[in-house]
Specification:
The protein is an alpha/beta fold and about 270 residues long. The protein has two domains: about 10-240, Alpha-Beta Barrel (TIM Barrel), CATH 3.20.20; about 240-269, no CATH class. It is built from eleven helices and eight strands. Helix 2 links the parallel strand 1 (about 20-25) and strand 2 (about 45). Helix 5 (about 95-110) crosses helix 6 (about 125-135) and helix 6 runs parallel beside helix 8. The model has no long low-confidence stretch (mean pLDDT about 95). It binds 3-methyl-2-oxobutanoic acid. 3-methyl-2-oxobutanoic acid binds near residues 49 and 219.
Amino acid sequence: MTPRKKITPKAIRERKRKGRLIVALTAADFITARLLDDAAVDIILVGDSVGTTLLGYESTVPVTMRDMLHHTKAVARAKVSGLVVADMPFGSYHQSKAQAVRNALRFVREGGADAVKLEGGLVQKATIAAIVNAGIPVLGHIGLLPQSILQEGGYKVQGRTEAQVEALERDIHAVEEAGAFACVLEYICAPIARKLTKMTSIPTIGIGSGRHCDGQVLVTSDMLGLQGGFAPRAVRRYAELGKEMKTAFEKFTKDVLKGKFPGKEESFE
Ligand code: KIV
């Protein structure tokens, strides 16, 4: 198999023009990044959802630059051809444009990311523009913003009221005008996501936003069923790895307790 060419932000933008859908999934470690790349995933997002999926935080608010750099470096070491996008954590771009540019630079120079993502439309327009002007590609993110949980008090589907729709329209225009190469639309009613997708020249990448976006992203641990039990409505489970892992751990426990592991074939006589 011929190796894939490195995916660039420009190539992601071209996809919209050509009508080729964009595939994105999250990764926080070397092995997952390699597997996603083998599956020809276009965008490998080191999402700050790592905070709730792998690190045990209750929301993404406590995720730090240190956490995100650690996971971004692990993903970058996989030397993938997919575009590696690092999520800027809460507080890493809110104080000033200078702070945002400084931290975005850390993601590309220390972390090895190809681009960064940050949450917010119109309110972050100047920040996105400052990072883009520093030469760092930015993936926008509008709609449901998990980092705004303190203000919002919960995770709610967006685009249900006229005021929300107008705000979303302002947001997508702001993200585009600021120079982002694409924008995540999170939990936006499908008809509104469709409208936003039509009104912008940059690709939209939906999560919980229906099928009319220019691409789709899911949190990998959700689609793999790693956390068992509850799955948000917008998630399709492509595997039940949580159950499989538990079964394997139980089998190992039994084998060890019964003296069945290791056997002759696993020992050095
Ligand atoms: O952190 C994350 O995984 C994300 C996706 C939900 C887009 O931002």
